[in-house]
Fold this sequence. Notes:
Elements: E1 8-15, H1 19-30, E2 36-40, E3 45-51, E4 56-62, H2 67-79, E5 82-89, H3 93-102, E6 111-117, E7 123-130, E8 140-146, E9 166-175, H4 179-189, E10 193-200, E11 205-212, E12 215-222, E13 237-245, H5 248-257, E14 266-267, E15 274-278, E16 287-291
Parallel strand pairs: 1-4, 5-8, 9-12, 13-16
Antiparallel strand pairs: 1-5, 2-3, 2-6, 3-4, 6-7, 7-8, 9-13, 10-11, 11-12, 14-15, 15-16
Amino acid sequence: MLCAMFHCLDHVILAVSDLDAATRQYARLLARSPSWRGEHPSAGTANTLFRLENTYIELLSLAGDGPLGRAISAVLDTRGEGLLGMAFGTDDADSCRATLSERGLDPEPVEKGLGRDVESGAFREWLRVPLPLAKTRGVGLFGIQHTSFDEILPKAPPIGAADAAVFALDHVVVRTADAEACKALYGDALGLRLALDREFPQWGARLLFFRVGGLTVEVAGSLGDSDDGVDVTRGDRLWGLSWRVRDAVAAHARLVEGGFDVDEVREGRKPGTHVFSVRAGTCGVPTLVLEPSPPRD
Length: 297
């Protein structure tokens, strides 16, 4: 059995062209105020973080000149705004790097990170274990060990009724043209638990669900000649997000009132769930809003 190298999906990263505009948009989408407004002068980037119950989302943009900023600029020029990567939480960056090296992922040296909140002046520090895109099928993946107290990054406070606000992330979706290669990457190399591997001929899809820290990384591949929308010459694509709310009807009404383009609330594939899609206003991210099934007695 593989060791549990990662204990959570620490955060997901969304590349945006206008950080202020994207921050306002995601505050409205999530019905949450930001947890953090940061800057990284040496990297050439700035960010906004929204911390939820089980992870946080990072909006990342170009700010000045630096290596990461130049990389973000290239991504935006090539494919526009959208999801950029995932960070998995580890308790020991050095041990994590050693294990990833043993599993053939060729991690780069551990990097020290430092971020400053432009409003409070607080600093956060972390250790990052970068992985080359050539080994991660084009999706930005890395390990992260936070070395600052959790309280420095507070939960994003709700705006309005809490039941209508997003409180957690349910799953992320990776689109692929090679499900077997993803099974080897996320399962064998990264050590995530494979909870489901099933073909759905009615949808022309093969779905793999990897679980980590109460979240799901869903890998969606195609069956046969069905069109999965993935350019195989560019590897996989970190594609979409599904957010949890406590009351789908209330969340739907809130988003309609806020001017979002949404479809109707419907029953989800899992019994007892209710879902709807947000069709625009998400900075290029296909987005599903989900009300989980009630807890069992």
